[in-house]
Amino acid sequence: MQWITEENYEKTMAEVVEPYLAERGEQGFVERVKGEPIYYEHYRADQPKGIIVISHGFTESIRKYYESIYYMLQAGYSVWGMDHRGHGRSYRENKNPFVVHVSHFEDYLLDFRYLMDTLVRPDAKGLPIYLYGHSMGGCIGALMLEEHPFLFRKAVLSSPMFGLSFGKIPLPFIYAAAGVKGLGERKMEPMKPVAAFLPDDFENSCDSSRCRYDYYKKKRLEDPLLQTTEASIGWGRAAIKACFVVNSGRRIAHIHAPILLFQAGDETVVKPDTQKQFAKRVPGCRFESIPGKKHELYMTDSDTLIPYWEKIFAFYEE
What is the per-residue pLDDT across 47-65, written as a single tens digit (0 to 9) for each? Predict the structure, then answer.
């Protein structure tokens, strides 16, 4: 395994990782609903022993995971990933390029299942299929595990969004307020006004690695399709509801796939107690807390990142 360290990070990504992926990758669109294209990328390992499907987080895209995909391919896994609707190159209902909107959280699941049924499962040809889901993508992935218990052999949920953090304001109040404020077309309006791409600086970002943060920030500055930064009122309401649903004991009882759940020790984006609650309810769920690291564990320093991926690959291969 060739690990990417902080030394000459951007140069290594540009001269080693990106060409490696380009040789093994393909891109395209699928349409579950006519006129609503969903973008995907597919990377084939030289001698695949399994397939990993990536479910990305809020305001992200599959392109943020190029270093992660590089490790997956080296470990012998082909990779599929999509830009969830409202993100990246996929279909968007709203016109504001900086705002993520979804009418119903279920649309994420329906798109995901469509990609699985039309492309991923036929491509697998009997190989085991694994899930890697981060944050919002972890919530989407967990809902998939509940609704389709045998779709994935195993699942890794990294900093999954099982509860949103709004400080001391109770979630039922936020949910009700979003319902009143987001009537009609106003549901597509941002929760906070946004008219330009204004990314967080590194200190206020979700990353614990400066060079990784700088690399993807540069990509976002170069590509307007990667510049989503804010949630719509409708997305906020749909996400709050999804967090309540995913932690339902009745739904969790349907999960059969083994799960490895990672929690960031310095978590400020999602509620850590909801992750612990979920892990306790899922029989045999492995729970790993990584102290002192921020939300995006796949964008942390190499001393933390390498053991993180080693645990993931060991889990998949057991």
Answer: 999 999 999 999 999 999 9
Give backbone dihedrals phi and psi of 127, rounded to 5 degrees, phi first. -70, 150
Find, among 130, 278, 310, the residue nearest to 290 by Cα. 310
Asked if 90 and 47 count as a contact pair (C-beta separation under 8 A), the reply is no
C-alpha count within 13 angstroms, C-beta hemisphere, residue 112 = 26
Distances from the Cα of 118 to the Cα of 121, 122, 195, 215, angstroms: 7, 7, 37, 33
Instruction: With H, G, I as helix, E, B as strand and everything else as coil, classify residue 283.
Output: coil
Give residue for tokens 């040809």. Answer: 125
What the block records as the tokens of 127 is 């190989």
**Residue positions counted in the chain:** 318
Rounded Cα–Cα distance for residues 104 and 99 (Å):
15
Q: How far is CA 42 from CA 27, 77, 79, 253, in A?
A: 6, 11, 6, 32
Report d(CA 85, CA 232) in Å as an integer: 13
- How many C-beta atoms surround the C-beta of residue 181 within 10 A? 14
With H, G, I as helix, E, B as strand and everything else as coil, classify residue 53: strand
Question: Going along 211-284, which residue ranges are E strands?
Answer: 230-231, 259-264
Q: How many CB atoms lie within 10 A of CB 125?
A: 8
Task: Please count the other Cβ atoms lying within 10 Å of the Cβ belonging to residue 221.
Answer: 12
Instruction: Check residue 104 and give left, alpha or beta (phi > 0: left; psi -120 to 50: alpha).
Output: beta
Residue ranges of domains in the chain, CATH in brackets: 26-317 (3.40.50.1820)
- Look up residue 286 and give its two tokens: 């492995």
pLDDT for 98-125, tens place per residue?
A: 999 999 999 999 999 999 999 999 999 9
Do the beta carbons of residue 255 and residue 282 sit within 8 Å? yes
